[in-house]
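Entry 12.
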Amino acid sequence: MLKRIRLIMILTIIIVFSFTALASATTFIRIATGGSGGNYYRIGAGMASLWNDLFPDLQVSIQATGGSGANVDLIADKEVEIAFVGANPAYEAYNNLGQWADRPEGRYKDMRFVSHGYPNPENFLAMEWAPEIKNMRDLKGKRVSIGMIGSNDLVYWEQILQVLGWTMNDIIPEYTVHQACIDQVRNRQIDAVFWTDAAGSASITEIMETGFARFIDIDEDVVEAMTKDTLDFPFTIPPGSFPNQDQPVKTFAGSAIMIAHKDVPDDIVYDLIKSTYENQDFLIDIHPIIEYMVLEQALNGQPFELHPGAEKYYREMGVLK
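Predicted 3D structure (tokens):
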């Protein structure tokens, strides 16, 4: 009996140590994305699935977040290892500009660039029950969806307020995006939508399919101001990118990019970005927007220095000489 008890104790100890060793050999990678249903979230989910399949020693998970504004803080606080952000807000955070001017100096200096993702244009839609909205100045007093608190959408809107000479009190702000905003459209609780999302976005598509919304060109002076001395650029949404959109739409866009904390090991970043570019077909099946993520444009929108793991891969592929 005593021998049996000793054997059980030994086996228990072996099992405990085995699980401990296994846990210690696992590297956890957390990806900050955006609102559930958005492009960042869907792409992040696809990459997490791919990386978990390819690298058994990694455990990759995604987090739904408020978007770029929230994600730079998550990276700075080491609460995630990788994040999707807009290039321009990433640049401003890194350099303590704009809404990040009053943050501690150097708070965001540990961010490193990994890859360009896709062009992320600003979308301006007005509803059929607000036919008087023909340009941005007509939004005064209207119910406008401007994105979630901490999102890239809200960062842009606050910059545009300065161009218009307005304050937030000049509109009725709705801090919604994606499914919440779609519900507002269906319930006629919103007059206009103003947030970034890539051509072919599922959320914008769903809004356009209601038959209530129409695209409006963004005012030329706003486009000029938003693309002067920034990483953003004038952009035209091609006709047919969305249902019921038969005319080109003039707007501006930024690069959606992937970044990492500098402390993520070089070999892990190398493996992750290499596997991403080598498995485009898998990712495109999850979200067609990955078609824009090509090696020839890998460095588009780079707001700060490359992560060494990504730099190694780009040198191997001839992107960097």
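Annotation: The beta strands are 27-32, 58-63, 82-86, 111-127, 143-145, 172-174, 192-196, 213-215, 233-237, 249-261. The first strand starts at residue 27 and ends at 32.
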